[in-house]
TrEMBL record:
It is found in: Cytoplasm, Cytoskeleton, Microtubule organizing center. The keyword Cytoplasm applies. This is Mitotic-spindle organizing protein 1-like. Keywords: Cytoplasm, Cytoskeleton. It comes from Diaphorina citri. The gene is LOC103509855. GO terms for cellular component: centrosome; gamma-tubulin ring complex; interphase microtubule organizing center; spindle. Belongs to the MOZART1 family. PANTHER family: MITOTIC-SPINDLE ORGANIZING PROTEIN 1. Its main location: cytoplasm. GO terms for biological process: gamma-tubulin complex localization; microtubule nucleation by interphase microtubule organizing center; mitotic spindle assembly.
Length: 76
């Protein structure tokens, strides 16, 4: 079981990571960033994780664009 000091240190470290993420305008919310950190701690390569995040964002953007186009065409 983690000690109280370890928990406090982990929270402080995460707050620093969150602040850096915000300064770099990554667009990652706290929950998503936490998942990314945990994946890295489990051995996922950060570069591979970054590529997955970029691809997911690209797909979401593409889906939203297609949805917007479809909505506009049905209104015409």
């Amino acid at each position: 079981m983690a000690s109280a000091n370890s928990i406090v240190n982990d929270k402080e470290a995460f707050q620093c990571i969150l602040e850096i993420s915000n300064l770099l305008n990554t667009g990652l919310d706290e929950k998503t960033l936490s998942c990314c950190v945990r994946l890295c701690e489990e051995g996922v390569t950060p570069e591979a994780l970054a590529l997955v995040v970029k691809e997911l964002r690209r797909q979401v953007s593409s889906t939203q664009s297609n949805s917007s186009i479809n909505n506009n065409s049905t209104l015409s």
